[in-house]
């Protein structure tokens, strides 16, 4: 029995699975867990299926029971209603804020992470410990004092107020420090001996090696900003400065009973991230695993 | 003489290098100090004040005293603790189950399932609430339709004090498992197959292999997942603000939601900061306990 098991386990890790008896792959545990997994998958995928199909249903159809599983007569009415609101402006705001945060965070994090990993200078350890300790605290604990600070600066309801506070969050520095440690010191030493300036060796040697990490950080930053709700909620006041999630949430008050329009709004808010995720799943996975290695 | 001058020279060169390093650090540090460190310190400071739009008066520990006596705050703390005690173990068990099921599958299958379970995490919380609002809707929601098919009475899932918090917890769990699954798949893939093979040769059962080899090897990942899931659960706010506004009868109000309500509905910034400070202390204490319990180093 145990001998058979050994063979099975080995076969699993060897590229050719030809010799594995079919019946062994079908042991009851594997079958049950696969069935459970597929059932859970349906629960996870269904909301998105429903958002996307619901966006093309008229109200009567969207709320009928039993549900119409597939829109038999797709309509664009919901999208027309949706764009009667300031949806264009909200989408622009979301993009503008997310892209600004992404660019700024990648810039300041890659330089800071690089020197924290590769340079010796007084205070290096202390600075890094403080950054890591701050990360362990929940970000939202500081929202109230952050709000009073932004109010004093006059940054409430401005792009500055939406963008800059996010740059202070040290996750990016941490991620870039972790990744910079993989750059071989010999290359940097050699460049220094050849008379290469610090800035030039950073741009020509470190940056190209850091590209995958910067990519992962860029995607994460974009996603965090695009999907943010809480901090944008407290910083925004006027309809014009709202981001997409805020706008859709406000509409939820107004169109509470019009599910087709709400689904169209939800689809609009989630489709960009969904597309980015499907295109760059590898970068996501890499960023998550890298960020976890302490 | 020569040695001293050389030493001096090298020290000076080091200094010049230091300056470049500090310049590289400066932008990140400036933002960090201004938007993280300063608000943290200032938050502690204003928690000792009666601070509203019209008032700014030092009151010492008054805010904290009032909080400890407030039954609404007690309810929020209880709700938050229930949320953490239910969500964290479920997230971990579910993530390990999914990871164990998929980690030996072909690459495309692994990516597919990882992607499916990460979907709710890449979706805006507002979109998530739109669809769950419909799922839980008492009249035309799909949940009541499905439970009706098996003969159950329709429920007001988000409006009933008995079910509201659990209804929120379910959504929270679906949005929290994506990252842990990715981490567990990576961790399982790193376990050397020779360890498991050796155990197999020694006639270990699959249960023993899991508890004696796989589980200890997953410890560092467990620690990280527990810490981040706990922190995320403590911060649960948007789902509540969008779905129930803390109701019915404060049954879904979390500490984070109370902070928001105090500050931005009642305009009571001092009290809100005091809650924030208490929340930070609670989370800090829990993180330390978790590190003590799970912080074993595994090397392989």
Features:
heterodimer, A: 294 residues, mainly alpha, 2 domains, 16 helices, 74% helix, disordered N terminus, B: 300 residues, two-stranded antiparallel ribbon, 2% strand, globular
Short description, anyone?
By secondary structure, chain A is mainly α.
Describe the 3D structure:
The complex is a heterodimer of chains A (294) and B (300). In chain A, helix 5 crosses helix 15 and helix 12 packs across helix 16 (281-292). Chain A folds into 2 domains: 2-80, no CATH class; 82-292, Orthogonal Bundle (MetI-like fold). With 294 residues, chain A is mainly alpha-helical. The radius of gyration of chain A is 25 Å and the shape is globular. The two termini of chain A are 40 Å apart. Chain A is built from 16 helices and no strands. With 300 residues, chain B is mainly alpha-helical. Chain B has a domain at 72-125 and 172-294: MetI-like fold, CATH 1.10.3720. Helices cover 76% and strands 2% of the residues of chain B. Chain B contains 13 helices and 2 strands; from the N terminus they run H-E-E-H-H-H-H-H-H-H-H-H-H-H-H. Chain B has helices spanning 2-46, 62-69, 71-102, 107-122, 125-135, 142-149, 164-176, 178-190, 193-201, 206-234, 238-243, 255-265, 269-294; strands at residues 49-51, 56-58. Chain B has a two-stranded antiparallel ribbon. In chain B, a hairpin with a 4-residue loop joins strand 1 (49-51) and strand 2. The longest helix of chain B is centred in the first third of the chain and has 45 residues, at 2-46. Chain B is globular and about 75 Å long. The termini of chain B are far apart. The mean pLDDT of chain B is 87. The chains are: A mainly alpha (294), B mainly alpha (300). The interface between A and B is large, with 101 and 94 residues.
